[in-house]
Amino acid sequence: MESKNRTVITEFILLGLTQSRDMQLLVFVLILIFYFIILPGNFLIVFTIRSDPGLTAPLYFFLGNLAFLDASYSFIVAPRMLVDFLSEKKVISYRGCITQLFFLHFLGGGEGLLLVVMAFDRYIAICRPLHYSTVMNPRACYAMLLALWLGGFVHSIVQVVLILRLPFCGPNQLDNFFCDVPQVIKLACTDTFVVELLMVFNSGLMTLLCFLGLLTSYAVILCRIRGSSSEGKNKAVSTCTTHIIVMFLMFGPGIFIYTRPFRAFPADKVVSLFHTVIFPLLNPVIYTLRNQEVKTSMKKVFNKHMA
């Protein structure tokens, strides 16, 4: 008889996004095209912000880090998923599964906290402009950056530790195209009610509270700028609208996946695809397309290196 906490399973079989071969090839081509068009844009954003002396404001500092986080996040799931589309048997080792899960929530948690920091930055800039340079000084920005990395690490390591304590003795088929908490937990050969509850509090409650906090903060900001001058008002509204769009793209799928009991729903895989592959690469692009300063700098960098 195996001891309670001993892991018997050494690998998991991923059932993938769909069992249809034609659909797999279609999704493979679409994601590959999207991946190789949008991903370089994220690195261009980072390079532009770091190389342009005019983009030193905290807003651009955090935007550069968002692009870096999202680009890193996109490497966790997409490359392996593309390889698995062409494989007959989609297998991931137990350690590989835990590693994927850790980095998924480490970077995802860090990004969620980064959006909170960016909302705080906009609140100070719009509602407390005279205190902006004092509050959002370089030292404070780096401290916030360190805090969000630490927050993402703590958020992720708690989940990993809880999963490592579970026994896995079969079956070993994960009904998804990557390793995530809801599917992995359901394979444990023990009662997981308490662990699921802790996971919902850790991921679900954190996601929901961040979302509601951000929604409230932007509502306050938009109310405060109603009486501003036309030029300043339009710029502030444009910036806040961009943040709100990204906020819904980031937290909407997370709330759907993590704030409910871990039961399979028909839309789970599609939501997970957008949450782990599509939206992370789009977030910095949405910011950039609505920011004239960054667009102008990117054109200069592109023309300089293409000349």
From TrEMBL:
InterPro entries: GPCR_Rhodpsn (IPR000276), GPCR_Rhodpsn_7TM (IPR017452), Olfact_rcpt (IPR000725), Olfactory_Receptors (IPR050427). Residues 41-287 form the G-protein coupled receptors family 1 profile domain. It comes from the Eukaryota. Pfam families: 7tm_4 (PF13853). One of its GO terms (cellular component) is plasma membrane. GO terms for molecular function: G protein-coupled receptor activity; olfactory receptor activity. The chain crosses the membrane at residues 25-47, 59-78, 98-120, 141-164, 205-225, 237-258, 270-289. Keywords: Cell membrane, G-protein coupled receptor, Membrane, Olfaction, Receptor, Sensory transduction, Transducer, Transmembrane, Transmembrane helix. PROSITE patterns: G_PROTEIN_RECEP_F1_1 (PS00237), G_PROTEIN_RECEP_F1_2 (PS50262). It is found in: Cell membrane; Membrane. It is a multi-pass membrane protein. Its main location: membrane. Belongs to the G-protein coupled receptor 1 family. This is Olfactory receptor.
